[in-house]
Specification:
The structure holds 3 protein chains of 3 kinds. Chain A is mainly α. Helix content of chain A is about 70%, strand content about 0%. Chain A has 14 helices and 2 strands, in the order ααββαααααααααααα. Chain A has a two-stranded antiparallel sheet. Chain A starts with a helix and ends with a helix. By secondary structure, chain B is of the alpha+beta class. Chain B contains 8 helices and 20 strands. Chain C has a single domain, classed as Orthogonal Bundle (MetI-like fold). Chain C has 12 helices and no strands. In chain C, α1 crosses α12, α3 crosses α11 and α4 crosses α6. Chain C is globular and about 75 Å long. Classes of the chains: A mainly alpha, B alpha+beta, C mainly alpha. Chains in contact: A-B, A-C, B-C. Chains A and C meet through α1, α2, α5, α6 and α8 of A and α1, α3, α4, α5 and α6 of C. The structure holds adenosine-5'-diphosphate and magnesium ion (MG). The site of magnesium ion has 3 residues of chain B, from α1.
């Protein structure tokens, strides 16, 4: 067996363990400690100075109070719509932008740029563009004879409108991820398929789609987690309104925090955490298992 | 004086023992080659000498000092890697000078040493280039130059030529030999190529499975291999083997015969051998000759005519295939029967344990 | 046939992309040039009176030069946290990739957890208050470092895997100590991925709205994203100033985009191919 002192000597001299230390301290203190603390504080009525243990009351509220339940449902709907649209549109745009199309560089830039722009700025701009009477979108629709909907002021529509803006801002990211995946597919496959008599549509379904699977996994995982956590866009556009119709867990966390219900706000954090764990872990396991089969 | 001594050196990765107790003495100025098949532990042994790998058990002495726990930089060694490991972001000049800079060598001394090394390797005109702007052979020389600049007592080479093409490899081999002669330092050189070992070494260490098989000069290893492994590994083309039975023993002479060979008399160390024992007979392809009255026969299965000599693959009765190198050009047909004799009793006997039975 | 079809597709793509992706930005620019009355119409008209410059001056000087303070705050926040991120993440990525220890499994788990788990807001505030870091710029800097470390570590680890270990060993033979190996050999070779890291994280942190909102409240503490939020509630009717503000805070990402597009794309697509 190896002599422990000599082993320690070689390790210490090359890749020092203390290189982990600065990152570990910052991450441990500012991320891990609060995360563990949240497990306790979510079970309390809490004012920052004093906390009173109240068991699962906060969590019961989340599944009983209609506006909190709605927030929970909204969160899942929002994440599913945005990630679904980003996958579909991202892949189509990527196929388009890797084909021999004119002004390809310009198109790629234009699609990607919104990713880098301030979310709040985007939210404000689209709030104005989506104004029911004066907004440019409805004015344009009117020109072609369509009576545009009340995008953000109709309670049954607001969440979906925000979701559309989220897709507008985020689809560029999905697109560049897909482009990276597509250009990694060897050209030989397409040429071999063509010689075998495959049409472009068939090539898409039998080559592009299966071989861009890793990109799909990345896009779905990223945008689904991002969707579940979304706060800034919703806050900039609707503040969760009208009523509670576009609230998500993240906006509820903020509202409860502002209202001084710290225990309930923290319970929201835990709910969001559990929701992500319950949805994302099986999702990635499913996606990766399928990948292993192929 | 920078001799080295390895005393019962062992190396384990977890429960796997890859170096199983190596004892070795290397004297100052020697060119020692570690040779053996891939995975036998050559690099591991070299890296323990360098201090890149810790020593699980045993002692390493360099220049009279126990070095198990000495930092690599304090061992008086320099190393040339198979991949060259040149720093890609530094010029050749900076690559040469990095070690001196770390040692805080004054700038003028550093500059002189760098230029000296560049002169020795005839690459003064390349000092301002980055490694990516050099050819494979030039990179190889930078790697060597970086070692020279450090003026080490011991040079360590880990398969330094294996990334070069065949012609360049021969040139560099000669250059290394010259370098050794000019610098007079101790050099330890790892290779899996026994031709490199034969041509470069003062002393060859044959390793297999983490165990030293034999230590000796190239000619010693060729003429008197201690066991089947060394006999098969050293020499090109490889030695031919066949199983034989001892018919009779007469002092230092044995008569053996087998499926592939008629009774043949050889000299060997017969201590402990008895009539009827099964042993292995080995003979080198160059030591066989065409002889109509020879006592080995087989059918020609492949002929390579090189002009000055002819390589023949011969299918023997037992099914074994032997390689024979015959002088001059021979016209042989596929399937033709060929009778061979062994030149001057140049055959070796290996006992059941694989140990060679050379005459004392 | 296919030639016609390709051109037809190109034209449609360019038109649609213009309407969908360019017009919103044109709208921002136009509104930022209008006067208060015309901007309140929210329409897509040509400015009657160009007063972009007046608007810019107005936005910057309003509320006691709040936007200027905010730009300074955001700059400090971005530069400091990205600097710490680069150094600390590269250190972790280096040792994590080079050394196989029983900790690696736990560390990898924590990295994934950091990418997935939403930060627990109120407990963090409680902790920051206890440490005297709440509503302090340096507190927020450390928060941004903590939240963005996992991504940076992943970037570095993937890149370090492409640097042969032989280089470290050659340096050790040359007499390098661990810090020499890291700072003189590894860090210079990491430069491409460091640029990517700097660019991607700078944009993210500069655009961060949520964390300053929670952890850096108070007058004089605003970051640029918060000025927008403040103006939104305050200037309910001053759309020209609101959009001038949007225009101003879009300029830094635009510059980054123009110069570092390639590095950004490299950063955000790292891992896309391998999953
Ligand atoms: N870090 C390691 N962990 C476990 N086994 C190793 C390690 N390094 C080398 N080995 C094993 O040790 C043996 C010797 O390796 P090496 O010295 O590189 O062989 P050589 O250089 O002779 O080809 C091999 O079987 C290899 O698999
Ligand atoms: Mg080796």
């Amino acid at each position: 067996m190896a002599n422990p002192t000599s082993r320690a000597y070689a390790r210490r001299s090359t890749y020092p363990g203390w290189f982990f230390l600065p990152a570990a301290i910052i991450y441990g203190v500012l991320f891990l400690v609060p995360t563990f603390a949240s497990l306790y504080f979510s079970l309390t009525r809490w004012s920052l100075f004093s906390s009173e243990f109240i068991g699962l009351t906060n969590f019961y509220q989340f599944f009983e109070e209609p506006f909190l339940v709605q927030g929970l449902v909204n969160t899942v709907i929002f994440a599913m719509i945005t990630s679904g649209l980003k996958v579909v549109l991202g892949l189509l745009l990527a196929v388009l932008l890797t084909s021999r199309i004119a002004l390809r560089g310009y198109l790629r830039s234009v699609v990607f740029f919104p990713v880098l722009v301030s979310t709040v700025g985007v939210g404000i701009t689209f709030t104005v563009l989506m104004h029911p009477t004066q907004g440019a979108i409805n004015v344009a629709l009117e020109l072609v004879g369509i009576d545009g909907p009340h995008w953000l002021t109709n309670p049954s529509l607001a969440l979906y409108s925000v979701a559309l803006v989220d897709v507008w801002k985020g689809v560029g990211l999905a697109t560049v991820i897909y482009i990276a995946g597509l250009v990694a597919i060897p050209k030989d496959y397409y040429e071999a398929a063509r010689i075998d008599g495959s049409t472009p549509t068939q090539s898409f379904f039998y080559i592009t789609l299966p071989l861009s699977r890793p990109a799909t996994v990345t896009v779905i995982t990223l945008s689904f987690i991002g969707g579940l956590k979304t706060f800034d866009l919703i806050w900039a556009m609707t503040r969760g309104g009208p009523g509670f119709s576009s609230d998500t867990i993240a906006s509820i966390i903020y509202k409860q925090y502002q209202a001084g219900f710290y225990g309930l706000s923290t319970a929201g954090n835990v709910v969001l955490f559990v929701l992500i764990a319950l949805l994302v872990v099986p999702l990635t396991m499913y996606l990766n298992r399928r990948e292993g089969h192929e | 004086m920078a001799g080295l001594e390895l005393k019962a050196i062992q190396k384990s990765y977890g429960a796997v023992e890859v170096i199983k107790g190596v004892n070795l003495e290397i004297s100052h100025g020697e060119f020692v080659v570690f040779v053996g098949p891939s995975g036998c532990g050559k690099s591991t042994l070299l890296r323990m000498i360098a201090g890149l790998e810790d020593i699980s058990a045993g002692e390493l002495w360099i220049a009279g000092k126990k070095c198990n726990h000495v930092e690599p930089r304090d061992r008086g060694i320099a190393m040339v890697f198979q991949s060259y490991a040149l720093y890609p972001h530094m010029t050749v000049y900076e690559n040469f000078g990095f070690g001196l800079k770390l040692a805080k060598t004054p700038k003028d001394v550093r500059d002189r040493k760098i230029r000296d090394a560049a002169r020795i390797l005839q690459m003064e005109h390349l000092l301002d280039r980055k490694p990516s702007q050099l050819s494979g052979g030039q990179r190889q020389r930078v790697a060597i130059g970086r070692a020279i600049v450090r003026q080490p007592e011991v040079f360590l080479f880990d398969e330094p030529l294996s990334n070069l093409d065949a012609a360049l490899r021969v040139d560099m081999r000669m250059e290394l030999a010259n370098l050794h002669r000019d610098l007079g330092s101790t050099m330890i050189y790892v290779t899996h190529d026994q031709v490199e070992a034969m041509t470069l070494a003062d002393k060859i260490v044959v390793l297999n499975g983490g165990v030293v098989q034999q230590v000796g000069s190239p000619i010693e290893l060729y003429q008197r291999p201690e066991n089947l492994f060394v006999a098969g590994f050293i020499g090109s083309p490889k030695m031919n083997f066949t199983e034989v039975t001892i018919d009779s023993i007469n002092g230092g002479q044995v008569t053996v015969s087998g499926a592939d060979i008629q009774p043949t008399e050889l000299s060997a160390d017969t201590t402990g051998l008895g009539e009827g024992d099964t042993v292995t007979l080995g003979t080198r392809p160059h030591d066989l000759l065409a002889d109509a009255s020879g006592n080995i026969s087989g059918h020609v299965s492949l002929v390579e005519r090189l002009g000055n000599e002819t390589n023949v693959s011969l299918k023997l009765r037992s099914g074994a295939t032997w390689l024979v190198v015959l002088d001059g050009d021979r016209e042989l047909r596929h399937g033709q029967e060929l009778q061979l004799g062994i030149e001057d009793q140049k055959a070796m006997i290996f006992d059941a344990a694989g140990q060679a039975r050379h005459m004392a | 046939m296919s030639l016609i079809r390709r051109h037809w597709l190109s034209v449609v793509a360019i038109l649609v992309s213009f309407v969908v992706f360019v017009i919103p930005f044109i709208f921002i620019v136009l509104t930022a040039m209008k006067d208060k009355r015309q901007s309140a119409l929210l329409d897509f008209s040509w400015p009657e009176k160009f007063q972009l410059w007046e608007n810019i001056v107005d936005v910057i000087t309003t509320r006691n030069w709040q936007l200027l303070t905010a730009f300074i705050n955001s700059t400090i926040l971005t530069v400091a946290s990205v600097t710490l991120l680069v150094v600390f993440a590269a250190m972790v990525g280096f040792v994590l990739q080079r050394r196989r220890t029983r900790w690696n499994g736990l560390i990898n788990f924590l990295i994934l957890a950091g990418l997935m788990i939403p930060p627990a807001i109120v407990p963090t505030i409680w902790l920051l208050q206890a440490m005297g870091l709440f509503a302090k710029l340096h507190g927020l800097i450390l928060i941004e470092v903590a939240y963005h470390l996992p991504f940076s570590i992943l970037l570095y680890r993937a890149f370090i895997a492409t640097i042969p270990k032989d280089l470290d060993e050659a340096a050790i033979i040359d007499g390098a100590r661990p810090l020499d190996v890291f700072f003189r050999i590894i860090m210079p070779l990491l430069w491409p991925v460091t640029v990517t890291n700097i660019v991607v994280q700078s944009v993210t942190i500069f655009n961060d709205f949520t964390n300053p909102l929670y952890y850096l409240p108070g007058r004089g503490n605003e970051t640029v994203q918060l000025t927008l939020y403040n103006f939104q509630s305050q200037f309910n009717t001053s759309y020209h100033l609101l959009f001038t503000n949007i225009l101003l805070i879009t300029i830094p990402p635009l510059i980054v985009f123009l110069f570092f597009n390639r590095q950004i794309v490299a950063g955000v697509t790292a891992g896309a191919v391998k999953g």
